[in-house]
C-alpha cells in the first residue's frame, strides 16, 4: 500500500510541475508576442523600481553635474598660473569617480528594465549646461566647495535609499545596491575631504602660508 501511495504522490507532483511549466510557457509565449494589442510582460522590472526610478534619474544627473564641476576645478589648478598638481589630481580623481558612478547608476536602471531619459538630464536645473562655479577661489575655499559637493552627493544617495525602503512596494535590491556602492564610499569621502579642509585651514592661518600650501599640494599629489 505504501509503495502505491508514494507512486501516486510522485505522479501528482510531476503532473503539477508539468502543468506549471506549461502554464509559464504559455504566458511567456503570449506576453512576448509582437502583437501591438498584447501587453508587454517579458521584462526585468519587479519590486518597487517604479517608485525609485525617477529619484535615481535625478541622482544620475547630480553625479554628472558634480563630475563636471570637479573637472573645472581640476583644470583650473592645472594651469601655469596656479600650478597645483596635487589639487589637480585630487579634483580629477573626484571627477572620474562621479562620472563612473553615473555610468554605474545607468547600468543599474537598465538592468532593472528601465530607461534613462537623457533629455531630462540636459533640462534639469542641475544640468551641466546650468553649471556655475567660481574659479577665483583659493585652495582652501576650493576644498570647501569639494566638501559641499561630497555632502550633497551623500544626502542624495541617502534619499534614493529612503525611497527604496519606504516606497510601496519597496525595492530592497536598489536599497542594498545604494548602501553597498555609495553610502559607505561617500562617508569615507566626506571624512577625507573634511580632514583636508581642517589641515589646510591651520596652514592658511600662518603669517606666510605659501610654503605650507606648496608642501600640502605635494602631499595631495602623492595620495
TrEMBL record:
GO terms of biological process kind: intracellular iron ion homeostasis; iron ion transport
Keywords: Iron, Iron storage, Metal-binding, Signal
Gene expressing this chain: FRI
Record-linked SUPFAM superfamilies: Ferritin-like
GO CC entries: cytoplasm
Species of provenance: Bactrocera dorsalis (Oriental fruit fly)
Taxonomic superkingdom: Eukaryota
UniProt name for this protein: Ferritin
Ranges of residues in domain Ferritin-like diiron: 46-204
Residues given in the record as Fe cation binding sites: 150, 186
Gene3D superfamilies: 1.20.1260.10
